[in-house]
Amino acid sequence: MSYNVLSSYADDFINDDEILETLDYAEKHRSDRPLLLNILEKARKCRGVTHREAAVLLECDQPDLNEEILSLAKEIKLKFYGNRIVLFAPLYLSNYCINGCTYCPYHGANRHISRKKLTQDEIRSEVIALQDMGHKRLAIEAGEDPNENPIEYILESIRTIYSVKHKNGSIRRVNVNIAATTVENYSLLKKEGIGTYILFQETYNKKQYDGLHPSGPKSDYFYHTEAMDRAMDGGIDDVGCGVLYGLNSYRYDFIGQLMHAEHLEAAKGCGPHTISVPRLRAADGIDPAKFPDAVDDKTFCKIVACLRIAVPYTGMIVSTRESERTRAMILPLGVSQISGGSRTSVGGYTEKESPVDTAQFDVSDTRSLDEVIFWLMQNGFVPSFCTACYREGRTGDRFMSLLKSGQIANCCHPNALMTLKEYLEDYAQEKTRIAGEQLIQKELENIPNQAVKERCRKYIAEEVQGKRDFRF
Ligand code: SF4
Ligand code: SF4
């Protein structure tokens, strides 16, 4: 097998020899200032760099150039995503799972954990609870179990979620994180109007992957790694990738992640819509100390910065796995979406006490959504509940061309302010509402297009009268 970015075989587009050679190349050039400066100059054009160039930046051992890497990542984040942070929440439908992932408490052999699958009525209750918090965008999660969680159950659940309209609430975008499946099933998901299909690779190192996935359908590395190709063949434009940092050498997985993005762009015409950057966390029966590849905070920041530089057009997501302190550190380096007020257990939004025995992982950031919103604003960010692109059909390459043209700022910024205003009207605590009103007035000035700015002012005034769901 040799490296081939266009091949449909995982062995070719995530080629082990190419990753090993890249690791070797990066190691040899970590102090090569002329090369590093060249890569940084290319990166400043904001059109990305190759996996090999990004690997050299990640390895760079020159303190001043490392500072430049971080500040360039911040510049790129501001250029494409401004100071906005889009909010979402996970919704766990079922923790039945027949896979054997050694790092996840939902693995089939875990007998300590209670198994639970939400009924459609329970889903409605969870969605009402999420709407009452102010959420508009969900990511549904379910283990892999063809008997308990067949595709029909997932499709019905999506219909239920979209159907719930409680007070002024509505879920406007459902992203789906379920196991790798067939082209036919991806087409069915597309027909139900899903946003992004999310599937974490966990690790791109096949040998390591095989050890971590000893049983169940997920043990097929190739089927798993080629899932995004099938999703796109099934008509899903927006796919979300991610590795679980800590399962394997971060250097290897960082390169694999970028090769995967390059493959999707080359073979399918559009790279991933988002990349998530989860790190291994403690959970029932899972001790992170047993995983020697844990990533420290400094390295984590560098990974986020180098991803931002390498794939400027790809959104980056960080979840409540990370603490407030870590989130504060990495947000400016390139993150565009975060979860807030999350429960990582099945039924967690409606049960009074967090049912920890069904949680997939421990949440580090346990603040309420309102606290997160207030905190974001205090730290100079504009919280956004925008779902406009997907609802306007701006998905896949249509979304990417708008982003690349620089015109997206005339959509994202007013949409952020209008959806924030909805939140302030319907859900915010008093302190948050006051801070939010001030922020909106200030940020209206930062909408580049004058006509859009005026329409945005008008829509915000209409929101005060009770109208909802404006978008550009
Ligand atoms: Fe199942 Fe996913 Fe957990 Fe693996 S990571 S055991 S597939 S829920
Ligand atoms: Fe995201 Fe599109 Fe909304 Fe911008 S306008 S925040 S890209 S959905």
TrEMBL record:
This is Iron-only hydrogenase maturation protein HydG. PROSITE patterns: RADICAL_SAM. Its cofactor is [4Fe-4S] cluster. GO terms for molecular function: 4 iron, 4 sulfur cluster binding; catalytic activity; metal ion binding. One of its GO terms (biological process) is water-soluble vitamin biosynthetic process. PANTHER family: 2-IMINOACETATE SYNTHASE, THIAZOLE BIOSYNTHESIS PROTEIN. Coiled coil: none annotated. InterPro entries: Aldolase_TIM, BATS_dom, FeFe-hyd_mat_HydG, rSAM, rSAM_sf, ThiH/NoCL/HydG-like. Residues 83-321 form the Radical SAM core domain. Keywords: 4Fe-4S, Iron, Iron-sulfur, Metal-binding, S-adenosyl-L-methionine. SMART domains: BATS (SM00876). It comes from the Bacteria. It comes from Treponema porcinum.
